[in-house]
Specification:
- The protein is mainly β.
- 3% of the residues lie in helices and 36% in strands.
- It contains 1 helix and 10 strands; from the N terminus they run ββββαββββββ.
- The longest helix has 4 residues, at 38-41.
Length: 132
């Protein structure tokens, strides 16, 4: 299961054919926990926007082992797996998002795009901690 730092509504932004389709889905959770299943991850990535939590823990029931991923400074979070390989889970803090379905939009108008002045530098990092 995933344990979010804070209890908050988990609203998934849905993807169809690799593009955001304009829909959302409220996920069933228990307090700050989201229990994972192949069905939950079968519809493409779980994508969250602007979470309150600054970290997320991947945990296993009846175990003290966990993997903590910091989310500080990242407005988006993607969680995904490959169909048929559910033992693999990717937890990715994101700064940008995939395109939306519908009319094309100018590159510099896309959600999450960071525009830099000439010679400017953008750096971002996150910390992954294994705890046992």
């Amino acid at each position: 299961y995933l344990e979010f730092e804070q209890e908050e509504p988990l609203i998934r932004y849905t993807i169809t054919d690799g593009l955001f389709d304009g829909h959302t889905e409220k996920l069933k959770q228990e307090k700050n926990r989201l229990y994972l299943s192949a069905d939950l991850l079968a519809k493409d990535a779980l994508v969250f926007k602007h979470l309150l939590s600054k970290s997320i823990n991947l945990r296993q029931i009846n175990s003290s082992f966990s993997i903590k991923v910091s989310l500080e400074g990242f407005p988006y979070l993607g969680i995904w797996t490959k169909p048929g390989q559910e033992q693999f889970l990717c937890i990715e803090p994101w700064c940008g998002l995939a395109d939306k379905q519908g009319l094309p939009i100018a590159f510099n108008q896309k959600e999450g795009i960071i525009v830099l002045a000439p010679d400017a530098v953008f750096q971002q990092q996150f910390l992954t901690t294994i705890q046992h």
